[in-house]
Specification:
The chain contains 4 helices and 6 strands; from the N terminus they run βαββαβαββα. It is an alpha/beta fold and 128 residues long. The strands form 2 sheets. It has a 3-stranded mixed β-sheet. The longest helix is centred in the first third of the chain and has 11 residues. It is globular and about 45 Å long. The relative contact order is 0.22.
């Protein structure tokens, strides 16, 4: 089965120049653990919650920095044609819990998480 059948399509993203304060609000209020960074709708990086919290711990002015300053510039991604099984392997191999799903043009079409996969394979469709 294709990853598009289980991915979340409503993706919240930030722009490269958005302040980390904005990213922190997303992490706090929406319970994300990572957020894509885009430029002209194309993925250019990802910020993980632990990277933001580490940056805040190191630098008292961290929230004034911009997203591009701490983002992972080489995130693991998948395209819309990948199977769920291939996504599972990528998540495990890279020890990550989040995969952006990109169009052939590099535009974020959705995300798939470990929770999405667990929910798909669980008997009652509920992993919470």
């Amino acid at each position: 089965m294709n990853i598009t059948s289980i991915m979340t399509r409503d993706v919240v993203a930030v722009e490269m120049d958005d302040p980390l304060e904005t990213v922190r609000v997303f992490f706090k209020n929406i319970a994300f653990h990572s957020i894509p960074v885009v430029a002209d709708l194309k993925l250019v990086g990802i910020i993980y919650d632990y990277d933001l919290f580490a940056e805040e711990w190191r630098d008292t002015n961290a929230l004034k920095k911009e997203a591009h300053e701490i983002m992972d510039k080489v995130p693991v991604t998948v395209d819309t044609k990948i199977s769920i099984e291939e996504a599972i392997n990528l998540l495990a191999l890279n020890n990550i819990s989040y995969l952006p799903v990109l169009s052939s043009e590099g535009i974020v079409e959705g995300i798939v998480t470990r929770k999405d996969i667990i929910k798909f394979y669980s008997k009652d469709g509920n992993c919470y």
